[in-house]
């Protein structure tokens, strides 16, 4: 049973990934994006930090995991956009009429958005090394695994949003954009929240992304055995479980 | 192959309830080619989507290929092919990639998918388009690719929702040639929907007329026309002779209908075998001193059937 689902996930993922395989140039923009962010934002931060006490050491070591989380969020929250297009044209209905498991339809699509992430993370990391970034390969790998689990959850939520907004395309974008940036900023991904007002710190505590960002920072700095990492995994698994639950429900109840 | 019992589906849109399908009882035997004919909004797609397990019924039951659609939807999907109203192939994909992946979705091995896909490309005149992006295909090519996607796993039962809507007559004829040949070769049972009268008339062996979510007639096209409409004979006469002609025609068949015509008054009457009745009628009219300006024999169409059943014409909605 679960073997069959794994096979379905692989097939859905590969079909989606074929758009990249057949047109690799589409990847270039998405590879440049994090580099631009790192190159333009990074220096500002180190200027801000001065001696770096705010970031507990090198600002790059602090900022880079945040960029990797950001590209995960950008990518996976878009899962629904491609889906929406295929709901509109009819390809999605054709896939719904096959025996593919409903879970695999979501997980496969979310994993596709995560696929370039591995390449992106690799490139960003390699570029950062000459500027003083210290790489802990095993820790980064664990960090990517956590992001993978989290990303499937975000992808599934984006998928459910696309189905809910299938009749009015702009609603998808309105909701996606108005959630994405507050979540990112309130996770302390771009700037530390310690200097922010109290309500921001409270808001960040209920934002699952905060736990992911914190865990990634600990992992990228070379620590594995830390409660922060454990909380990161809890946040990732909870997000994935909620996302899949909501996503599967929306496939079952929607009348596409 | 298909058995339904009071199959119904209601949608709730805002505060309004839309009874899309109101209790359909249908039996389709293996090997049949059945057309669901009805105006837009009659509930054809909704019925098809329930039969293919894409939409749960509000009430009633359906067995498709021997399996209950609510209890085991995935099993139903494994056994059928479904070609929806919109494009099945993803616009951003290549033809061959879509076809192979579709085979994989049905659990076929790569080799089987390649073999079946190659066969379908050849037989549907799509050879040479393998690496083409779907969005660059013509309407007719896209539709043939949809057919290939629906047949890749060699299903015994195929559902087609408005397969030829929006196509020009030549492409439509071409598509039908392919569908009928594949059916011949594979013995596939086919249930399709259409709102084109001539399509249902010419292609299907059995026509199920649907209106407002109900089946209102179910027979061969010929039998429907014979029983529900019958031939009509029309003569045009001078207005001052209309009464005489009308009295005479009343003895030929049911009561004649008259309407004004550019050349006088047109009188039409239902008769059996209109073209054979014509010479005798003309002779009797002449003998009674009526000058016939024009005459025509009218074979019934499915539109006459629909008109007779509902009081509306199917063509109005187009
Ligand atoms: N998902 C849906 N939500 C609400 N109403 C629907 C939905 N699908 C179909 N309907 C309504 O059900 C009726 C039948 O539609 P449909 O089955 O698509 O007709 P047909 O295919 O014969 O043109 C129409 O009134 C249509 O507006
Ligand atoms: Mg329809």
UniProtKB/TrEMBL annotation, chain A:
Keyword DNA-binding: no
One Pfam family matching this protein: ABC2_membrane
Keywords annotated in UniProt: Antibiotic resistance, Cell membrane, Membrane, Transmembrane, Transmembrane helix, Transport
Localization: Cell membrane; Membrane
Residue stretches spanning the membrane: 25-50, 62-85, 114-136, 142-163, 170-191, 229-248
Domain ABC transmembrane type-2: 25-254
Main location: membrane
InterPro entries associated with the record: ABC2_TM, ABC2_TM_bact-type, ABC_2_transport, Nod_factor_ABC_transporter
Listed GO biological process terms: response to antibiotic
Topological relation to the membrane, as annotated: Multi-pass membrane protein
Superkingdom of the organism of origin: Bacteria
Family label: Belongs to the ABC-2 integral membrane protein family.
Protein's recorded name: Transport permease protein
Organism: Pseudonocardia oroxyli
From TrEMBL, chain B:
UniProt main location, coarse: membrane
Subcellular location: Cell membrane
Domain of life (superkingdom): Bacteria
A GO cellular-component term linked to this record: plasma membrane
Topology in the lipid bilayer: Peripheral membrane protein
Keyword tags: Antibiotic resistance, ATP-binding, Nucleotide-binding, Transport
Keyword ATP-binding among UniProt keywords: yes
SMART domains recorded: AAA
Protein name: ABC-2 type transport system ATP-binding protein
Native source species: Pseudonocardia oroxyli
């Amino acid at each position: 049973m679960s073997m069959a689902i794994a096979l379905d996930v692989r097939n859905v993922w590969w079909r989606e990934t074929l758009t990249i395989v057949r047109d690799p140039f589409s990847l270039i923009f998405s590879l440049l994006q994090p580099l631009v962010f790192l190159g333009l934002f990074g220096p500002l931060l180190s200027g801000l930090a001065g001696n770096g006490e705010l970031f507990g050491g090198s600002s790059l070591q602090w900022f880079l995991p945040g960029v990797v989380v950001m590209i995960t969020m950008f990518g996976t929250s878009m899962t629904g956009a491609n889906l929406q297009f295929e709901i509109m044209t009819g390809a999605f209905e054709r896939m719904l009429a096959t025996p593919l498991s409903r879970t695999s339809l979501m997980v496969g699509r979310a994993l596709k958005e995560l696929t370039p992430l591995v390449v992106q993370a690799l490139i960003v990391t390699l570029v950062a090394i000459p500027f003083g970034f210290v790489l802990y390969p095993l820790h980064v790998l664990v960090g990517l695994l956590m992001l993978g689990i989290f990303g499937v959850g975000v992808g599934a939520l984006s998928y459910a949003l696309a189905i809910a907004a299938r009749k009015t395309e702009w609603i998808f974008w309105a909701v996606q954009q108005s959630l994405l940036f507050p979540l990112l900023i309130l996770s302390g991904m771009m700037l530390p929240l310690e200097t922010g007002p109290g309500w921001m710190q409270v808001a960040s505590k209920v934002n699952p992304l905060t736990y992911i960002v914190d865990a990634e920072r600990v992992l990228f700095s070379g620590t594995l055995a830390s409660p922060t990492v454990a909380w990161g995994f809890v946040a990732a698994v909870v997000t994935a479980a909620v996302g899949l639950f909501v996503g599967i429900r929306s496939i079952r109840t929607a009348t596409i | 192959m298909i058995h339904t019992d009071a199959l119904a589906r209601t949608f709730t849109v805002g505060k309004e309830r839309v009874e899309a399908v109101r209790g359909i009882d249908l039996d389709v035997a293996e090997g049949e080619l059945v057309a669901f004919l009805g105006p837009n909004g009659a509930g054809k797609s909704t019925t098809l989507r329930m039969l293919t397990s894409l939409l749960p019924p509000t009430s009633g039951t359906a067995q498709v290929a021997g399996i209950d659609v609510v209890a085991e939807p995935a099993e139903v999907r494994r056994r059928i092919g479904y070609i929806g109203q919109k494009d099945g192939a993803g616009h951003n994909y290549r033809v061959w990639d879509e076809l192979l992946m579709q085979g994989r979705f049905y659990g076929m091995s790569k080799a089987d998918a390649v073999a079946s896909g190659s066969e379908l490309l050849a037989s549907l005149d799509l050879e040479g388009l393998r690496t083409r992006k779907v969005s660059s295909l013509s309407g007719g090519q896209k539709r043939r690719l949809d057919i290939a996607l629906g047949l890749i796993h060699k299903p015994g039962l195929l559902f087609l929702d408005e397969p030829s809507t929006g196509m020009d007559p030549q492409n439509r004829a071409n598509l039908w040639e392919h569908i009928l040949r594949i059916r011949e070769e594979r013995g596939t049972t086919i249930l399709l929907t259409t709102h084109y009268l001539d399509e249902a008339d010419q292609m299907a062996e059995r026509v199920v007329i649907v209106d407002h979510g109900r089946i209102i007639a179910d027979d061969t096209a010929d039998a429907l026309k014979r029983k529900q409409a019958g031939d009509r004979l029309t003569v045009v006469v001078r207005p001052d002779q209309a009464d005489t002609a009308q009295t005479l025609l009343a003895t030929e068949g049911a009561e004649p209908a008259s309407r004004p015509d550019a050349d006088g008054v047109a009188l039409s009457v239902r008769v059996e075998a209109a073209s054979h009745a014509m010479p005798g009628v003309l002779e009797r009219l002449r003998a009674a001193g009526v000058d016939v300006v024009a005459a025509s024999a009218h074979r019934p169409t499915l539109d006459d059937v629909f008109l007779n059943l509902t009081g509306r014409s199917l063509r109005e909605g187009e």
